[in-house]
């Protein structure tokens, strides 16, 4: 019995030792996790401080790394809006606090803009009751109010009227669709009263397009300017491809009517081949009742079944007309060669009694008149 008790005692003692060792290991692991968590918190805090600087000096360094543009206040509304947008993006990226925005932005005012800010800073930044969502609060000017004051000074009414006039008169003209779109978007930002909705902006953009492109668009109503711009660009691309094909055909027709040097011209039946596609006459599609000569209703160009090129039908194919013209020219040439004959014309001399015989070869140059040569007697 005593031996059994001693064995049980040793087992309990060993279990206690193992349990204590496990507890020590667990405590060490927990302590290690606590240290790692503290280090992680410290790293995250440092990263947040570097990303979101809250002091003026830290924010100044962070803003300078973004390399913002300077604004000189020379009365260019496009440059003014570009400068304002750049700082809006910088402040959003850096999570800049409201009280640090104006000091950072005014550091990048130069020339006329810097003089204006220096002369009006105390008045604009003075503590006074200001409206915050219907509540009067005594505070200094915020960033949105600063932008309003800046626009009032450097985008006055007379410049705004001139910009609106320029926007109203804007047309594509000789510009590409891309160039016209860029200018339209720049000016539309200053003429919101004329294009207050996306539908109005899309309609106004379409009205300024080239008449040929506008006709190809079909007068549909578009909800956004991007829809009009995309379709107009595709139509312009197709037009350019068609013009390139027409240019190649013009080269093919150059010199067709020139006679061979040293030979008499042979008068053949003439075929008039227009060098440009006749688009002056209106063409109305039977399917959609729209004018889109040279294109199907979906905007794709016609394809000629004779030459395989785009932009015209078989009845308008210049290659076919040219080849038919060459065939008629060869036929007339052979007819003219076989129509020659010699005729003797007896003409009395003015002096004396002898008669002078003149032999003249008459070539029929008009194959349609199927008649033999005629002997003419001259008195």
Considering DSSP H and I runs of 4 or more, what fraction of the residues is helical?
A: 40-55%
Beta-strand percent range = 5-15%
Q: Going across the biggest sheet, name each strand in turn.
A: 1-2
Radius of gyration: 45 Å
Give me the strand/helix succession: HHHHHEEHHHHHHHEE
What count of helical segments does DSSP give?
A: 12
End-to-end span in angstroms? 176 Å
Q: What's the main sheet like?
A: 2 strands, antiparallel
Helix vs. strand class: mainly alpha
Mean pLDDT: 74
User: Segments where pLDDT lies below 50 for 5+ residues?
Assistant: 255-280, 340-371, 373-379
Give me the count of strands.
4
The rough form would be described as: flat
Short descriptors:
single chain, 379 residues, mainly alpha, two-stranded antiparallel sheet, flat, disordered C terminus, CCHC-type domain-containing protein, Znf_CCHC, zinc-finger
In short:
This protein is mostly helical and 379 residues long.
Describe this structure in words.
This protein has 379 residues and is mostly helical. It is 54% helix and 7% strand. The chain contains 12 helices and 4 strands. The protein has a two-stranded antiparallel sheet with strand order 1-2. It has a two-stranded antiparallel ribbon with strand order 3-4. Helix 9 runs parallel beside helix 11 (225-253) and helix 10 crosses helix 11 (225-253). The radius of gyration is 45 Å and the shape is flat. Residues 255-280, 340-371 and 373-379 have low confidence and may be disordered.
């Amino acid at each position: 019995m005593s031996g059994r008790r001693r064995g049980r005692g040793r087992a309990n003692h060993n279990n206690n030792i193992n349990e204590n060792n496990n507890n020590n290991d667990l405590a060490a692991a927990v302590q290690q996790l606590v240290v790692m968590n503290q280090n992680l918190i410290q790293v995250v805090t440092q990263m947040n401080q570097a990303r979101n600087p809250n002091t003026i000096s830290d924010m100044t360094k962070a803003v300078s790394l973004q390399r913002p543009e300077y604004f000189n206040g020379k009365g260019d509304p496009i440059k003014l809006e570009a400068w304002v947008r750049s700082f809006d993006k910088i402040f959003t990226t850096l999570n800049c606090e409201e009280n640090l925005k104006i000091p950072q932005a005014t550091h990048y005012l130069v020339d006329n803009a810097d003089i204006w800010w220096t002369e009006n800073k105390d008045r604009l930044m003075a503590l006074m009751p200001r409206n915050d969502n219907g509540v009067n609060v005594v505070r200094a000017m915020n960033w949105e109010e600063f932008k309003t004051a800046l626009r009032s000074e450097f985008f006055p009414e007379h410049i705004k009227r001139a910009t609106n006039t320029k926007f109203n008169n804007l047309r594509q003209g000789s510009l590409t669709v891309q160039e016209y779109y860029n200018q339209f978007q720049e000016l539309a930002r200053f003429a919101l009263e004329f294009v207050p909705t996306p539908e109005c902006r899309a309609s106004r953009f379409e009205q300024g397009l080239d008449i040929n492109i506008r006709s190809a668009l079909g007068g549909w109503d578009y909800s956004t300017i991007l829809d009009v711009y995309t379709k107009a660009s595709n139509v312009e691309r197709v037009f350019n491809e068609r013009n390139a094909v027409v240019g190649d055909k013009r080269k093919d027709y150059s010199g067709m009517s020139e006679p061979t040097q040293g030979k008499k011209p042979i008068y053949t039946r003439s075929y008039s081949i227009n060098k440009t596609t006749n688009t002056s006459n209106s063409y109305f599609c039977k399917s959609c009742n729209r004018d889109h000569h040279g294109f199907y209703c979906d905007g794709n160009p016609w394809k000629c079944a004779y030459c395989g090129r785009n932009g015209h039908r078989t009845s308008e194919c210049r290659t076919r007309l040219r080849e038919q013209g060459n065939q008629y020219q060869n036929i007339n040439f052979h007819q003219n060669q076989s129509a020659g004959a010699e005729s003797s014309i007896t003409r009395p001399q003015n002096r004396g009694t002898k008669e002078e015989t003149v032999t003249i070869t008459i070539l029929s140059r008009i194959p349609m008149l199927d008649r033999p040569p005629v002997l003419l007697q001259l008195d």
